[in-house]
């Protein structure tokens, strides 16, 4: 009996520790990474801490112990964050109308036109999908043109839409950046540049029926992990020698730089969005999870369409962490979300997000 009591107390102590870690993930979204980026790692680990607390919750329920409240309270305190990862489609009675707007955001991974790709270029498949979905507005990140492979006229022809690019890097043989595709009348377009970065933001003021709306296309700072970083994370054994220390230091440095730059970028974007005279849609690759300073800052005054009309667990990145949703469509209060989906297309390392809204 003494051994059982000791085991029980140890389990309670471990449970309390991981419950506190889960609560720290909620707090981390309020901490600007420009001042203390390390706190953002807690947000990155939210799914891990949530899973551990769910396991403890079910264990204590099975054992019929009062310790069940430890994880239950910790999870309920962050129910809004939970809904950013998992949405139960209860009470979603949104219905479409004739004045609906279909919006697609997609990180196209340079259409796989880069020289080191072992896969076929994907632009034909991507634009074929765009035509079939009959969307009104398309926001593309990692938009790429290359002489002899793909030019602006071909994009317009393949998509059957007008193309409004915003280049971050433009050379005589290639161009890289963002693009908004639409056949709606365009009043104006603009750019928000980020210093010392291959990421940026653009926007377009569009006329839909009698309304003018502003659509932002955002690509925030990526972590820029190398193959060696992924190999390090996927290893089953760690020797904790000088080589492992260097690998860990390199990984943390990349994460720290990315979190810090994203914080600066998102604050700049939010400041610009706040001046918009029109209803706003914010689309793009935020390169951050729903438990992050980036997401918290952007959703302080805008609404996540996944929370409106999504269902289940959705990932938009097909890489190392497939459970992460890092591509979003947010809306201002003027819009109502009718539908949300993220088709499992294999044309990029991201999945598109397709949303239907109306005013």
Structural commentary:
- The chain is of the alpha+beta class and 359 residues long.
- It has two domains: 2-77; 101-358, Deoxyribonuclease I, Chain A, CATH 3.60.10.
- Helix content is 39%, strand content 25%.
- The chain contains twelve helices and 14 strands.
- The protein has helices at residues 2-28, 33-36, 40-44, 46-63, 68-77, 79-85, 123-133, 152-159, 227-234, 242-273, 293-298, 305-309; strands spanning 86-87, 101-107, 137-146, 162-170, 174-182, 186-193, 200-208, 211-219, 280-285, 303-304, 312-313, 327-331, 336-341, 353-358.
- The protein has a six-stranded mixed sheet with strand order 4-5-3-2-14-13.
- A hairpin with a 6-residue loop joins β6 (186-193) and β7.
- The longest helix has 32 residues, at 242-273.
- The N and C termini lie far apart (65 Å).
> Would you state the CATH class of the largest domain?
Alpha Beta
Distance between the termini: 65 Å
Largest sheet: 6 strands, mixed
Binned, the helix content reads 25-40%
Give a topology summary:
Layout: H1 2-28, H2 33-36, H3 40-44, H4 46-63, H5 68-77, H6 79-85, E1 86-87, E2 101-107, H7 123-133, E3 137-146, H8 152-159, E4 162-170, E5 174-182, E6 186-193, E7 200-208, E8 211-219, H9 227-234, H10 242-273, E9 280-285, H11 293-298, E10 303-304, H12 305-309, E11 312-313, E12 327-331, E13 336-341, E14 353-358
Helix pairs in contact: 1-4, 1-5, 4-5
